[in-house]
């Protein structure tokens, strides 16, 4: 285990609480696990949590941090809690839902793809991957591999996960929450870019000129 014991404990507890909230919202264990796609989503979530225990993700403010951007953390937290409850609940009462089991399986597939896209960069960046917008000691710019054409693959993974989660519950409300995630996410991206531009100057400018910020071919 590479991350701190405190972060590991938080990751495990928050994941179990999040899944427990969704199970309760859908009507209990029997109702939740009667859907194969939701079983896959749970297994994928647990696998991502276990994988995170072997990363070097941290909450270090490093050598320099944009503390003004910390507001996105509680914003993500509020949206996350809402996402844990509302999609499953609207599925249970059949409010603003669409499609059937095929939509659930599409959601499970996107959830897995998003999870891989979210976790891969975490392993690539190692100690440079912080929950805060910060420059870490010995920080270097990564512009190859998964970062060669996309500057924020992990954040794209977050969005794909959110869409996949919403579809797994056939939830229009879940899709709205996924869209709402874009607001703090874009704010964080801009804060990170400003910090990286100040740190790496022309090297980062050149990288930006040949890569996409979040969605290839669009943004």
UniProtKB/TrEMBL annotation:
Its main location: membrane. InterPro entries: ICMT_MeTrfase, Metal_cation-efflux_comp. Pfam families: ICMT (PF04140). Keywords: Membrane, Transmembrane, Transmembrane helix. The chain crosses the membrane at residues 7-32, 38-59, 71-90, 102-120, 155-187. It comes from Pseudomonas migulae. It is found in: Membrane. It is a multi-pass membrane protein. This is Isoprenylcysteine carboxylmethyltransferase family protein.
């Amino acid at each position: 285990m590479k991350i701190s014991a405190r972060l590991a404990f938080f990751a495990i507890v928050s994941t179990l609480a999040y899944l427990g909230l969704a199970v309760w919202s859908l009507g209990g264990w029997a109702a939740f696990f009667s859907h194969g796609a939701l079983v896959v989503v749970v297994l994928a979530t647990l696998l991502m949590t276990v994988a995170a225990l072997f990363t070097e993700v941290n909450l270090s403010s490093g050598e320099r941090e944009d503390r003004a951007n910390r507001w996105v953390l509680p914003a993500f937290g509020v949206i996350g809690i809402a996402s844990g409850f509302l999609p499953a609940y609207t599925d249970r009462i059949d409010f603003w839902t669409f499609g059937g089991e095929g939509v659930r399986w599409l959601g499970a597939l996107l959830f897995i793809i998003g999870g891989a896209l979210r976790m891969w960069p975490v392993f690539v960046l190692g100690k440079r991957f912080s929950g805060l917008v910060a420059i870490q000691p010995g920080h270097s710019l990564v512009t190859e591999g998964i970062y060669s054409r996309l500057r924020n693959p992990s954040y794209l993974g977050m969005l794909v996960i959110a869409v996949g989660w919403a579809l797994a519950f056939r939830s229009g409300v879940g899709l709205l929450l996924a869209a709402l995630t874009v607001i703090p996410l874009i704010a964080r991206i801009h804060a990170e870019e400003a910090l990286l531009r100040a740190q790496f100057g022309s090297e980062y400018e050149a990288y930006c000129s040949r890569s996409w910020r979040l969605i290839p071919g669009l943004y």
